[in-house]
Amino acid sequence: HNNELDLMLDHLTRGSRELKVVSIVGMGGIGKTTFATRIYYDPVIVSRFDTRPMVTVSQEFYVRRLLLGLLNSITSIPREICNESDGQLADRLRKGLKGRRYLIFIDDIWSTEAWDDMKLCFPDDGNGSRILLTTRNTEVAEYASMNEPPFHRMRLLSFDESWNLFHSKVFTKKEGFLEVEKDKNLEEVAKKCLEDLIDRSLVFADKGSTRNGKIKTCKMHDLLHGFCLREAQR
Questions:
Q1: Does residue 149 sit in the same domain as residue 196?
Q2: Which of 115, 121, 135, 139 is the most buried (most CB within 10 A)?
Q3: If you write DSSP's letter for every residue of 2-44 in order, what string do you get?
């Protein structure tokens, strides 16, 4: 991925001095946040920008929480800020970013509405500021960048890469998928294995499918499903 990293660093540090949005697009669990975080902490980025606020949006977003999260990244928040309206918080954020070359990392944004609620907070001072955005939705990426490139689409893993990822995340050191532990029956071990797969985003529990901490139904990640099908057909 070094070529992809170099290309993204180039988009974020070179070119127009106008404010630009650089998006990373891909299905859930494919590694958008991991890739964006690698970019965010790259020494080239750290030395380039005066401030680097970071916020995660998610499907259910609350504007006030996002504004407070961004504000907390760039300045100390006074106690009286709790009494301010969302508009006052947005104005405070604009003033905090004004005149500074900033990189804002907005992770996991799902809708154009969420972008509309935030975009006016980001001043364009012609100093090369950038916004790094991850999303599952190409429409959101195109909308945020006003239909101008660049946005980076995460490529699907090759078979060998899929196997290496699956192997590193699922199999134990002893190459056993289920490692029976002492004093635990097979059902308990299987439950623990399922929970591990969910934690690693390889299996997703459906909303409302848990009762008393028990998972009733779940879905398999598309990459994992495809991998299992290929293995079964061998």
A1: no
A2: 135
A3: HHHHHHHHHHHHSS-SS-EEEEEE--TTSSHHHHHHHHHT-HH
Q: Tell me: do 101 and 201 sit in the same domain.
A: no
- Structural element, H or E, at residue 105: strand 103-107
Rounded Cα distance between 175 and 195, Å, is: 19
Task: Please count the structural domains in the chain.
Answer: 2
Q: What angle do CA 50, 54, 56 make, to 5 degrees?
A: 165
Other beta carbons within 10 Å of 142: 18
- Domain final residue, candidates 131, 153, 175: 153
Tell me the two tokens of residue 113: 């509405």
Q: Note whether 135 and 29 are same-domain residues.
A: yes
How far from 52 is each of 49, 103, 105, 185, CA to CA, in Å?
7, 5, 7, 49
Model-wide pTM > 0.70: no
> 66-115: per-residue pLDDT in tens?
888 888 888 877 888 878 899 999 999 999 999 999 999 999 998 999 89
